[in-house]
Specification:
By secondary structure, the chain is of the alpha/beta class. Helices cover about 30% and strands about 25% of the residues. The protein has a single domain, classed as Aminopeptidase (3-Layer(aba) Sandwich), CATH 3.40.630. Strands 2-3-1-4-11-5-10 form a 7-stranded mixed β-sheet, sandwiched between helices. The chain has a two-stranded antiparallel ribbon with strand order 6-9. Helix 2 packs parallel to helix 4 and helix 3 crosses helix 5. The protein starts with 6 loop residues before the first strand and ends with a helix.
Length: about 200
C-alpha cells in the first residue's frame, strides 16, 4: 500500500502594517502528520496573483487529499469556514506588492463563483466539538483570501482533481488587538485546534 496523500495547509505573511499574521501563527502549530497523512505547510505572500500561483504549483506537485488555505479576518470572533469564493477582486488597501484592484475578475473567463469542496458544515461541527467557536461563512471578502480560495478551486475543477479544498478565516491574535479595545481575538493554539478538527472532518 502506498503512502497516504499529503494534506496542504497554507497561511499568510503579515500585511497592513501588522508584524504577525494570525493565520501563519496557527498553521505553524499544526502537527506534521494527521491520521497517516503528512501535513505540508506553505507560507504565502499577501499578493494577488502570486499567492495563487504558488498554491497552484503546490497542488500540482503534491496532489494532496485536502487543501485548506487559512487567512486572518480582523473583527471576526469565530473561526469562519468559507463556503464560496467569487470571481472578483476589490481591495480597500493595496496588497504587499502595491496592487489595489477595484472590481477586476480573478480569472476573466472563469465562472462567477465556486463552492468549497470541503464538507463545510462538518468542519464547523468538528471544530465546535473540540471546543473551538466556529461558524460557516458565506463570504470570504474580495481581498487576497477570496482570490486564493477561488484559484485553488478553479485549478482543481480545471484539472478534474478530486480534492477537498476550501478556506478558513481565523480571528486576530491577542497581540494584534492590544490597542483595539473591544475587538475580538483568538490565541493561535485555539485556532490551530479548530483547523486540525476541520482537517480531520475533511479526511473522513
Amino acid at each position: 500500500m502506498g503512502a497516504a496523500a499529503p494534506i496542504l495547509v497554507s497561511g499568510f505573511e503579515p500585511f497592513g502594517g501588522e508584524v504577525v499574521n494570525a493565520s501563519w501563527e496557527a498553521v505553524k502549530l499544526l502537527p506534521d502528520e494527521m491520521d497517516g497523512h503528512p501535513v505540508q505547510k506553505l507560507l504565502l505572500p499577501v499578493e494577488f496573483g502570486r499567492s495563487g500561483d504558488l498554491i497552484e504549483e503546490a497542488v500540482a506537485e503534491l496532489r494532496p487529499s485536502v487543501v485548506i488555505a487559512v487567512g486572518e479576518a480582523g473583527g471576526r470572533a469565530h473561526l469562519s469556514v468559507e463556503r464560496v469564493a467569487v470571481n472578483l477582486m476589490r481591495a480597500r488597501i493595496a496588497d504587499n506588492a502595491g496592487f489595489q484592484p477595484d472590481g477586476e475578475a480573478i480569472i476573466p473567463e472563469g465562472p462567477d463563483a465556486y463552492l468549497a469542496t470541503l464538507p463545510v458544515d462538518a468542519c464547523v461541527a468538528a471544530a465546535r466539538a473540540d471546543g473551538v467557536p466556529a461558524d460557516a461563512s458565506e463570504t470570504a471578502g474580495l481581498y487576497v483570501c477570496n482570490q486564493l480560495m477561488y484559484r485553488i478551486l478553479h485549478a482543481i475543477a480545471c484539472n478534474n482533481m478530486h480534492i477537498r479544498a476550501g478556506f478558513i478565516h481565523v480571528p486576530h491574535l491577542p497581540c494584534q488587538v492590544l490597542e483595539k479595545q473591544g475587538k475580538p481575538f483568538c490565541p493561535a493554539d485555539i485556532s490551530a485546534r479548530g483547523i486540525a478538527a476541520a482537517l480531520r472532518a475533511a479526511l473522513c
